[in-house]
Every structure is written in structure tokens, then in C-alpha cells.
Design a protein that fits this description.
The protein is mainly alpha-helical and about 60 residues long. About 70% of the residues lie in helices and about 0% in strands. It contains four helices and no strands. The longest helix has 16 residues. The protein is globular, with a radius of gyration of 12 Å. The protein starts with a helix and ends with a helix.
């Protein structure tokens, strides 16, 4: 189930941006590494505000 959700979550931006690179692993480190530098601080702030559990999974997919 998580793999399908991740495929959907990465598919939309992939299509919107024309990204044709390798699949992004479903981890905080992998996502952060691929963000534009100007978006990383926002990413880190949102991550720090999470309680964990289901909220984390939903946030990561977003």
C-alpha cells in the first residue's frame, strides 16, 4: 500500500516538471536531497513540527 501511495505522490510532480531521472527512494534524506535549495528550510521546519505516525507518512507523501 505504501509503495502505491508513494508512486502516486511522486508521479504527479514527475509529470508536472518533466523529471525523467531515477525514482526517488521514500526517505526523508532522499527527498530532501532532491529539493531545490530554497525549499529545504521549509521542508526541515515542516518535518520538525510533525508528531510522527500517520501524520508523518501523509506529510512525506505530500
Amino acid at each position: 500500500m505504501a509503495d502505491l501511495q508513494w508512486a502516486r505522490a511522486t508521479g504527479q510532480p514527475r509529470e508536472a516538471t518533466g523529471y525523467a531521472g531515477e525514482d526517488i527512494p521514500r526517505s526523508v534524506e532522499a527527498v530532501r536531497e532532491r529539493l531545490r535549495a530554497d525549499r529545504r528550510q521549509e521542508f526541515d521546519q515542516e518535518l520538525g513540527a510533525l508528531d510522527g505516525g500517520g501524520a508523518f507518512a501523509a506529510w512525506l507523501n505530500h
